[in-house]
C-alpha cells in the first residue's frame, strides 16, 4: 500500500488524556478518553445545547480539521450532490393503496426535503393532503416523521415526529375533517401507535429516560394523557417492546423481544380496556411472529429446532403453544423471512441459496406457487396490502443494475401488473452495467457471497478502485438491490461490492449464528477474505480498495482496521459501534441489556468479557500504520453514542504509525440516521464519496465514464 498521503499536512486535534479506570473480572481497564462521554447524556439527547463546553469544543475542533483536510473536494462534493440529486425524481409519488373507501399514498414535491401524505377516493377523485412534511419541518434544524396511521373510521390520523434526531418521538392526533391537530399530544414515545377497532382511542409505547420502550398505554381520545391506562409494563431492561394492530384491525398485538427471544401479548381491538393475553411465554432462543387471520393465527417460529423457521397455526380463541399445528414445515436451507395472512391466502417471503422468492399458499387447500426471478443477484420486497379481504398483493423487485419495479399480483389468476418503474431523471441504461455474484473462500472453507456492480467498460486488471461494503450483525441481510448513489462512484471507474459476511442471514440462519458471540470473528475474517479475493481476481488492488460500514458495520470497519490495515487504502465508518466492551459494560445505556444476546454479557461472564475484549475495535487499537479513516457520527444518536467514534479517533491518532489521516465529522444537529431531509442526506453521502475519490486519486469533478482514469495513481 502506498505510504504517501494525498492530504495536506495539517495538525490534527489532540484530545486530552483524562484516565478513568475500572476493574472487571480482575482486569483493569484504563480509558484515557472516557471523559468525552457526557455525564448528562440523557439530557443531551433531548437538548444538545446542554453538552459540556469542553466536549463540544473538541467535537467542533474535529469538524474544523475534517473540513480543512477535505477543503479541496468542495467542487467535487457539489458535483456529486447534483449527480445524485439528478437521479431522484423530485416529484416522485407512491402508488396509492386501497383501504376501504380511500386509497392512501405519499409523494414529494419538486425541491421538497420531506414527503407529504395524501388520500383520494378509492374509485378515483380529488387528492386530499393529510400531512405535509415540508410544512411541519419549517424552522426546524432537524425533523423526521416516524410513522403515520389513519383510524379505522378514516376520520383521524395518528402521526409522530422526532425533532432532535434522538428518536424521542412526539405523537400527534389530527382531525381529518378540519386538518388540525387535536390536543391529544404525547411526548417521549417510541414513534408509533395503534387505533382500537372503534377509533375511540389508541395504544402507544412510552420511552423511559434511558430510551427504553418499557410501558404500553391506551389513550382515549379527548381525555388528559395523564389518565391514560397502563396496559403492560416490561420490567426486564433486556427486551425491546412495540405495539401494533392486525391487518383487519381486530387485534392489538404487543411484541416483546430481544435478538433471540420473543413474547407476544394480545387483546381484542374491540375491547381496549381488556387485559392483554399471553400467547406463548418467552423461552430463551425461541422466536415467533404473529399474523391474525380471522378465527386463527398463523405463527412464524423457530420453535422445536426449526432453525430456518416454520409456520404453524393456532385458534384465535387460544393461540397458546399447546395448540400450534404445523402448516409449512421446517426445511433446512430455506429461511422463511416473513409472512402475511389474507382472507384466502397465506403469503411468505423466503430465501433459498441466497436469493429471495415470494410464495403464495391457498388457505383452503394448501396449494402453493412461487414468484421468482432469474437474475444472478436481485432483491424482492413484500409490500402486501392494506386490506385483509383481498386477492391482490404488492411487491417490489430490483437488482444492482435494474431500477426498482413495483407490481400488483393477483394471487388467484397469477397475473402480474407493473405499476411503476423507478425513474432516474438524469438517465440510466442498465445494459451499461454488469452485476455479478462471486464466492470468496474464507479461511475455514466457507464461501462468502459478494455482489458486484461495475460498468461493462471497466478494466478488470486490478487497476480499478473498489468500494467494499459490509455489515454482518443481527441477522440483517444486505440485499443486492438498485441504489442510485453508488453510480457516482461506478461511473468514475469504481467497482461497487457488497460482502455478505457471516452475522447476516444471507445463507440461512446458520450463517447468522456463525457470525455472533463466540463466532463473531468470522464476520471480520470473512470481510478480509472478500477484500483479498477481489484483489486476487483482479477486480481491484489493495492500494485502491476502500471499505465502508455503518453502525454494527462500523464495528466491522474498526475490527478489520486493526486486523488487516494493509488490505485497505481507506475506511469509512458511519456511526461506528467501536467501543463495544465499554458499552456492553454500561447497563444504563439504551441498547446495552437488549444487546447482550447478540454480543454476550461482559458484566456477568468473564468468558464474554474476554471474548468482546479480543475484538472490540477501541480496545485493540495498537501501534501500526492504519489506512486513511473517516468516521461520521451524530450528537443525538441513542444507538451508537457520539463518544464512541470520538474516543476511537483519538486513540487511533495516538497510535497511528503511518501518515494517513484519521478524520471525524460529528453532525451536531442529528442522530443515528444523519441529516433528516432527503437532499440533506445526499450531502453527507457526497462528503463520504469525495473522501473515497480523493484517497484513491480519482478526484475529478465529472462522473462521465469517458473521463475515467481507473489506472491513475493517487494525486
Automatic annotation (TrEMBL):
This is Dipeptidyl aminopeptidase BI. It is an enzyme of class 3 (hydrolase). The keyword Lipid biosynthesis does not apply. The lineage of its organism: Bacteria, Pseudomonadati, Pseudomonadota, Alphaproteobacteria, Hyphomicrobiales. GO terms for molecular function: aminopeptidase activity. It comes from Nitratireductor thuwali. InterPro entries: AB_hydrolase_fold, Pept_S9A_N, Peptidase_S9_cat, Peptidase_S9A, Serine_Peptidase_S9A. Belongs to the peptidase S9A family. Keywords: Aminopeptidase, Hydrolase, Protease, Serine protease. Its EC number is 3.4.14.-. Residues 1-20 are annotated as: Disordered. Residues 481-697 form the Peptidase S9 prolyl oligopeptidase catalytic domain.
Amino acid at each position: 500500500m502506498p505510504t504517501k498521503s494525498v492530504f495536506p499536512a495539517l495538525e490534527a486535534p489532540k484530545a486530552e488524556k483524562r484516565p478513568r479506570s475500572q476493574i472487571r473480572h480482575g482486569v483493569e481497564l484504563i480509558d484515557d478518553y472516557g471523559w468525552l462521554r457526557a455525564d448528562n447524556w440523557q439530557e443531551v439527547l433531548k437538548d444538545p445545547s446542554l453538552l459540556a463546553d469542553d466536549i463540544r469544543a473538541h467535537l467542533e475542533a474535529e469538524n474544523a480539521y475534517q473540513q480543512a483536510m477535505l477543503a479541496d473536494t468542495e467542487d467535487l462534493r457539489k458535483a456529486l450532490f447534483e449527480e445524485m440529486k439528478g437521479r431522484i425524481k423530485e416529484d416522485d409519488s407512491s402508488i396509492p393503496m386501497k383501504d376501504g373507501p380511500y386509497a392512501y399514498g405519499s409523494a414529494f414535491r419538486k425541491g421538497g426535503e420531506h414527503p407529504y401524505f395524501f388520500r383520494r377516493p378509492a374509485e378515483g377523485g380529488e387528492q386530499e393532503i393529510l400531512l405535509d412534511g415540508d410544512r411541519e419541518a419549517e424552522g426546524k434544524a432537524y425533523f423526521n416523521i416516524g410513522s403515520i396511521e389513519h383510524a379505522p373510521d378514516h376520520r383521524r390520523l395518528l402521526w409522530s415526529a422526532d425533532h432532535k434526531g434522538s428518536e424521542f418521538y412526539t405523537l400527534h392526533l389530527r382531525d381529518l375533517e378540519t386538518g388540525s391537530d387535536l390536543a391529544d399530544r404525547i411526548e417521549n414515545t417510541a414513534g408509533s401507535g395503534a387505533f382500537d377497532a372503534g377509533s375511540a382511542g389508541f395504544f402507544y409505547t412510552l420511552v423511559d429516560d434511558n430510551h427504553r420502550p418499557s410501558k404500553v398505554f391506551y389513550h382515549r381520545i379527548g381525555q388528559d394523557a395523564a389518565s391514560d391506562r397502563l396496559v403492560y409494563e416490561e420490567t426486564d431492561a433486556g427486551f425491546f417492546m412495540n405495539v401494533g394492530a392486525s391487518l383487519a384491525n381486530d387485534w392489538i398485538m404487543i411484541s416483546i423481544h430481544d435478538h433471540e427471544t420473543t413474547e407476544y401479548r394480545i387483546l381484542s381491538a374491540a375491547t381496549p380496556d381488556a387485559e392483554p393475553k399471553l400467547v406463548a411465554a418467552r423461552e430463551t432462543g425461541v422466536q415467533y411472529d404473529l399474523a391474525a387471520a380471522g378465527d386463527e393465527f398463523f405463527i412464524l417460529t423457530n420453535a422445536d429446532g426449526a432453525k430456518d423457521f416454520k409456520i404453524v397455526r393456532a385458534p384465535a380463541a387460544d393461540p397458546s403453544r399447546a395448540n400450534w399445528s404445523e402448516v409449512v414445515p421446517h426445511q433446512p436451507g430455506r429461511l422463511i423471512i416473513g409472512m402475511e395472512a389474507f382472507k384466502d391466502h397465506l403469503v411468505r417471503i423466503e430465501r433459498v441459496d441466497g436469493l429471495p422468492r415470494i410464495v403464495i399458499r391457498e388457505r383452503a387447500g394448501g396449494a402453493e406457487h412461487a414468484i421468482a426471478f432469474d437474475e444472478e443477484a436481485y432483491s424482492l420486497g413484500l409490500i402486501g396490502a392494506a386490506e385483509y379481504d383481498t386477492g391482490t398483493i404488492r411487491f417490489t423487485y430490483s437488482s444492482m443494475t435494474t431500477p426498482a419495479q413495483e407490481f400488483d399480483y393477483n394471487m388467484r389468476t397469477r397475473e402480474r401488473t407493473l405499476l411503476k418503474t423507478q425513474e432516474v431523471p438524469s438517465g440510466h441504461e442498465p445494459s451499461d452495467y454488469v452485476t455479478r455474484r462471486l464466492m470468496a473462500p474464507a479461511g475455514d472453507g466457507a464461501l462468502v457471497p459478494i455482489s458486484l456492480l461495475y460498468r461493462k467498460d471497466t478494466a478488470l486488471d486490478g487497476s480499478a478502485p473498489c468500494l467494499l461494503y459490509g455489515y454482518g450483525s443481527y441477522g440483517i441481510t444486505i440485499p443486492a438491490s438498485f441504489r442510485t448513489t453508488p453510480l457516482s462512484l461506478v461511473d468514475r471507474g469504481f467497482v461497487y461490492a457488497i460482502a455478505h459476511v457471516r452475522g447476516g442471514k444471507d445463507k440461512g440462519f446458520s450463517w447468522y449464528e456463525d457470525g455472533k458471540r463466540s463466532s463473531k470473528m468470522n464476520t471480520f475474517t470473512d470481510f478480509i477474505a472478500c477484500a483479498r479475493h477481489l484483489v486476487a481476481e483482479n477486480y481491484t488492488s489493495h492500494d485502491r480498495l476502500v471499505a465502508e460500514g455503518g453502525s454494527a458495520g462500523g464495528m466491522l470497519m474498526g475490527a478489520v482496521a486493526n486486523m488487516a490495515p494493509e488490505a485497505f487504502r481507506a475506511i469509512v465508518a458511519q456511526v461506528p459501534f467501536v467501543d463495544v466492551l465499554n458499552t456492553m459494560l454500561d447497563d444504563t445505556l439504551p441498547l446495552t441489556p437488549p444487546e447482550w444476546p447478540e454480543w454476550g454479557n461482559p458484566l456477568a461472564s468473564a468468558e464474554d468479557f474476554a471474548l468482546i475484549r479480543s475484538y472490540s475495535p477501541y480496545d485493540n487499537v495498537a501501534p501500526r500504520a492504519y489506512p486513511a479513516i473517516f468516521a461520521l457520527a451524530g450528537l443525538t444518536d441513542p444507538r451508537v453514542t457520539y463518544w464512541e467514534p470520538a474516543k476511537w479517533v483519538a486513540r487511533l491518532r495516538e497510535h497511528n504509525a503511518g501518515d494517513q489521516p484519521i478524520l471525524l465529522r460529528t453532525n451536531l444537529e442529528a442522530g443515528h440516521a444523519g441529516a433528516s431531509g432527503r437532499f440533506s442526506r445526499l450531502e453527507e453521502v457526497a462528503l463520504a464519496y469525495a473522501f473515497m475519490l480523493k484517497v484513491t486519486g480519482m478526484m475529478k469533478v465529472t462522473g462521465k465514464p469517458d473521463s475515467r482514469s481507473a489506472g491513475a495513481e493517487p494525486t
